[in-house]
Each structure stands twice: as C-alpha cells, then as structure tokens.
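Entry 0007
Protein: J domain-containing protein
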Amino acid sequence: MNIVDLVKFDFVPSGADAGGALSSVPRTSPGSAPRRGYNAQRSLLCAFTCRKSFARYFASARSVQAAATGSNAGMSSNPYPFPKQANPTPHHIFHLPRGATQKDIKARYFELVRIYHPDSAIARHHPPDVAQAHFQAIKRAYDILQGRGALVDGMDAPHPTAGMRAREPPSARARRRPYFDDVKADERWTERVVVGGLLLTVIALFAQTYATKQQALSEAAARKRSARREAEARIGRPEDLVLGHDGISSDTALPSSRTQSSTNDVSRLNGP
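Output (structure tokens):
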C-alpha cells in the first residue's frame, strides 16, 4: 500500500488524545476497537512518511537557497564589474579615469586578470563564451591603453602618452610589459623579411633573363660579323673574280677549272 492509499483513510484519533475523542466514536459492535487501532497505525505511518518528505523538501530548498546566496555573494564581491553597455571604453573596463598613470593601469590589469580569468570563481558564474569574451576585452583594452593596439569596436582613443611610449626604446617597453601579458610579439619583421626575399628573387630572375638575352644577341652579332668578314675575304681573292663580256667584274665565285677556262676565253677575245 502506497502513501496515496494511506492518505485516503480517515484519521481516527487514538485513546491517547487529550480531548476525549473516544466519546465521539460510536461503539456499535465489539469489532470496532481493532478497527480503530488499525486506522490509527496507518495514520501514524502516513504522518511519519509525510514528515520525511517535507524534511527532504526543506533540506533541498535550503541547499538551493545557500547556493544562490553564495553565487550572489560571489558576484557582489567583484569590485570591478564588467560594463553592461555594448561598446565599453578601455577606461570604463578598467574603472579608471582618463588621467590614470601607467602604474595604475598595470596594477588594475593584474586585478582584472585575476578576477576575470576563465578559471576564476567569478568567471565560472558566466557561460564560457561570455567569460572568454570579457577576458579578451580586458586584454584588448590594456593594449590600447599601452599604445600597442588600434581602436576596435568603438573603443576610445589611447592614452595621451601613447606616442611618447611608441618612441621609447624596445628595452624600456620590455621592462614595462607585465608577466601576465600573453599578447603575441610584433611579427612585422617577419613580414618584411618575406617581402624582401620575394623582391630579391624577382630582381634576380629579371637580371638573369636580361643577361641571357644580351649574351644571345652578342653571339648573334659576332656570328654575323664573322660571316661578313669571310664573305669579304672570299670576294677579294683574284681567282674568285670573273670578268663579264662588258669588262665589268662579277661577284660570282666559280670553281677553279671553270675560272681557268674563262680566263683563256677572255684572252682569246682580247687578242695578242
């Protein structure tokens, strides 16, 4: 028999009741006394079960209230709550005035990192993506206040001394860099090296192509001059000259046998 079945029975008080409730119970038969005792036992069992259920309910309610109280206490213990506006400025995130010094900014950055780190107790009250967004916003705001970052998402201008810090030597900036700052180092020098290497490669290819072309042109000109000299030397030899019937020399080169016969013919025509 479950608790619902027990509750359905009417409660009949036992003889221990102080109000003399037994006088109100009709005694019509000898079996009424056992019936009253059975009902009283079931009523006591139902009361005991309900008492355990209510104790368990109140214990769980107290635990939930304690957890909520602890959560509210953890949130209220945050001295630097994250701004609720859409695009908070770096000074709003750091809860500092615009005239704050670099020492104050650095000290406040350490405190904010300790509070808003994704593994901290306060950050665990937020969803993981919200906690990570808050942490990244704090780092970006610190970069802007240090003069190392650009304006992002409506953030205000960097500190007035950002230009002076940019002209400082690298050693001074390295001494001022905090230990918790895991911002990547400036990698612009690697980009410059890559661009310089590409430019040198293009210049080397162009120079090699130009030199090869010039060498080919020089060799062609040399072959042409050599052929011309050979042709002039060959035309200038007496055995290569053939006189025409009109006495004008011809540049046609003939074999030696034909040249000899042509010479004899010319001698016969001219006479003794």
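Curator remark: The chain has nine helices and two strands. The first strand starts at residue 242 and ends at 243.
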